[in-house]
Design a protein that fits this description.
The structure is a homodimer.
Chain A: H1 16-26, E1 30-31, H2 32-40, H3 51-63, E2 67-74, E3 80-87, H4 89-100, H5 111-117, H6 124-153, H7 158-166, H8 172-210
Antiparallel strand pairs in A: 1-3, 2-3
Helix pairs in contact in A: 1-4, 6-8
Chain A binds a DNA duplex through helix 2, helix 3 and strand 3.
DNA sequence: TTACTCATGTAAGTAGTTACATGATTCC
DNA sequence: GGAATCATGTAACTACTTACATGAGTAA
């Protein structure tokens, strides 16, 4: 694992699950389960991960020396134990390194948009359904993000409270402000998607008016290809 | 592979690379290489894939019966061959099925946004750099998409020309319009990101004015965790 | 006693990445 | 003769998903 090298080798990967976990632990030590729960109503909105991914990742962080774990007894009878994770100095340093690192964003991979590119293969009704589903989904997201902004502004999440309690008072404004900025950004994103879907619905209407029968596309080009062009010799691939 | 079942089993996955390839083949038969090239300046904007992924995927599509391949001689001496792929009836049907299928969008996983959530760990300068990089990246994307919309509107890409040549004239408007709608949507998206980054830069400025020294965050909570619950004494910040 | 939450995982499989491998053909 | 590009891949690895497994503690 490239990011494990460090200390001389300095070949480091950027991976958000790791750093999201480190960031959560900045607010104080937690067990894997607690961490997973906190994850679910904070970072999970921007970086989704299943619990089954979080546990092994914590083990990896531990063996990389970025977190340290202790077995803590559970329950009154103390028959069972749980593992409490805490940041190490190296973990805190890695978190700060990651914050300052400029990452190349991953290439786009958006299924809804590739589908929309080929909507002419479906009927007007089907195209409309796609846009409607897109709108409904992003309306949900928008509402969820709005509720979250409200919680953050009222400093009403347990995680935020823990973090603020551990931070110097003059830092409180920044801590809240960056988080609010992120979720407001997500609200704007959602609104952009909703507007796109609505323009899509209008487009479907205009196209259906212009050509009521639509493009039923009953005549796909099957294999073997019919001779469309004479002299199939110099198939021009290049330049666009 | 669930999507391979079909014909009775009917357990089908939604995966865009497959369907993007099928969609490209609607415009006519192509070799793997030609397909990969066309991919690069069309679908790749919305669904990125490397060539090393495309070739095996074509083989899988072939063994699933969605495309059919023939060996075609290459060059004047005809010593080598290439494989030309074409849609089968099943492939065309699967493409249409996919268009009408409503997919659940994947959960969000956005590294830039999780990083922005924790920008208080860096300096104002570092925070600004993050937002500037974000803006620069999306300005590039916006420009690229604008150029692509222009090409589409002028019907100037080889792929679009081939597709239009193979489609009934009354369908031409819809074919172009959906593609333009997608790329205009991507332009709006990019603009939303640019605006977010700019508001971010303003925010950094306001926070720096309010607290010129910033939150240097020299005091992370390390392992073992101090007793948080009661008597939160700052003296007991952990040393490992 | 039952059901739920706490708590921690493993196994098998898919999708994608990076890096490498190989040889033919065409154009200058 | 050499460079670019045509053409088709393989191998090793990472991240993530789905589904399953197990058992303790707690409240009705």
């Amino acid at each position: 694992m490239a990011w494990l090298v460090g200390a001389g080798g300095e070949e480091v990967d950027a991976l958000s699950l790791r750093h999201a976990l480190l960031a959560l632990l900045e607010a104080g030590s937690m067990t894997g389960y607690e961490l997973a729960k906190q994850f679910d109503n904070s970072v999970d909105y921007v970086w989704h991960a299943r619990h089954s991914q979080i546990y092994p990742e914590l083990r990896r962080l531990e063996s990389a020396g970025l977190v340290r774990a202790t077995d803590v007894p559970r329950g009154s009878k103390e028959l069972a134990t749980k593992r409490a994770y805490g940041l190490t100095r190296e973990g805190a340093a890695e978190l700060r390194r990651w914050i300052t690192e400029i990452e190349a964003p991953p290439a786009l991979r958006d299924s809804a948009y590739v589908k929309a590119t080929y909507l002419e293969y479906g009927s007007a009704r089907e195209a409309r359904e796609q846009f409607r589903a897109h709108r409904a989904y992003h309306e949900q997201l928008r509402d969820r993000f709005e509720r979250h902004v409200d919680l953050l502004e009222r400093r009403a999440t347990t995680l935020l409270r823990r973090r603020l309690a551990a931070a110097p008072p003059q830092a409180h404004e920044a801590i809240v402000a960056y988080k609010v900025h992120v979720y407001r950004g997500l609200i704007e994103r959602a609104k952009t998607e909703i507007a796109w879907a609505e323009r899509g619905i209008e487009l479907v209407g205009r196209l259906a008016d212009a050509d009521p029968d639509g493009f039923s596309a009953t005549d796909p080009i099957l294999w073997p290809a019919p001779e469309r062009e004479h002299s199939r010799t110099s198939s021009s691939v290049g330049r666009d």
